[in-house]
Amino acid sequence: MELFKIFPGAVLLVSGLVGLIVGSFLNVVAYRVPIMLGRAWREQCAELQAEGLQEPPHAVGKPFNLVTPNSTCPRCGGAVAARHNIPVISFLALRGRCAHCDAKISPRYPLIEGLAAVLSLIVAWVFGPTWQLVCALPITWTLLALAVIDIDHKLLPDSMTLPLLWAGLLASLFHSNGGVIFTDVTSSVIGAAAGYLCLWSVYQAFKLVTGKEGMGYGDFKLLAALGAWLGWQLLPLIILLSATVGAIIGTAMIIVGGNSRETPIPFGPYLAAAGWIALLWGTDLTRMYAQLMS
After folding, report:
1. Is residue 76 helix, strand or coil?
2. pLDDT digits (tens, 9 = 90+) for 122-166
3. Phi and psi angles of residue 182, each rounded to the nearest 5 degrees, phi first
4. For residues 79 and 114, which has the higher predicted lDDT (pLDDT)?
5. Which of 50, 229, 262, 280 would bridge with 38, disulfide CB 3.0–4.6 Å?
6. Is the pTM of this model over 0.85?
7. Residue 175 is inside which H or E element, if any?
8. CA distances from 240 to 130, 192, 243, 261, 282 (A)
9. Residue whose C-alpha is closest to residue 195's, from 239, 147, 240, 247
10. Partners of 79 in the beta sheet?
11. 3-state secondary structure of 266
12. Rg of the Cα trace of the chain?
């Protein structure tokens, strides 16, 4: 920390580079975690048909986790050499094509890598060389991975939301420079409980009225995790931001995209984005709103 205080620009450089590298790993997480879950579910319950979570041909019958196998082409299964696995640069050098079969590589890979780097830079700019930065970077990366997985599979894995929840509760026990890192223990515990129960209540009311499920349990757990990290005080802001943006985009998809009202829309990305905004500027935004209303 002292080194970063002497060279303040170093924290931006380090955070950006680390974010770029982590962004490459987040692509692995977003791609492999749903497949790992589908495999585990099928092993635990033979009758389960995990539609949308089918394994790619090159993974069937082989060890498959975040470490094994090495990165491969989704089409031909060819191993990705280390020189072809440099974030963003390799994509540009290969002109967006596989070195083995010349198949097109999805631009989502460099986009996620670049987005992780940009978000990391913003977090470093806001918090500087502090313990808040040490906590905020993993939160940012986890929220990004959860948003991508939810967009792809309408799924928020417990293996990611629950550790985020417990980490937030534990972080509230520690102090930095005589103050809390993000929130105190009481606010964290109440935030976790209120975050879960808030969306759970909306879910139950919607189901009672319509007979349909309006959202998944992963959304409850994600909001609980955000409440654990930021405290109950910022939950109204997170809910307001996520619901507003979700309603606007949902309406646009119906009008412009031709989607029906029955088309399911993942709510996790809106929660993740709202939670990230609240993480960085939640207190300031809440204060500004209170001043406007007074």
Report:
1. coil
2. 999 999 999 999 999 999 999 999 999 999 989 999 999 999 999
3. -130, -40
4. 114
5. 50
6. yes
7. strand 175-176
8. 29, 17, 5, 21, 12
9. 239
10. 72
11. coil
12. 21
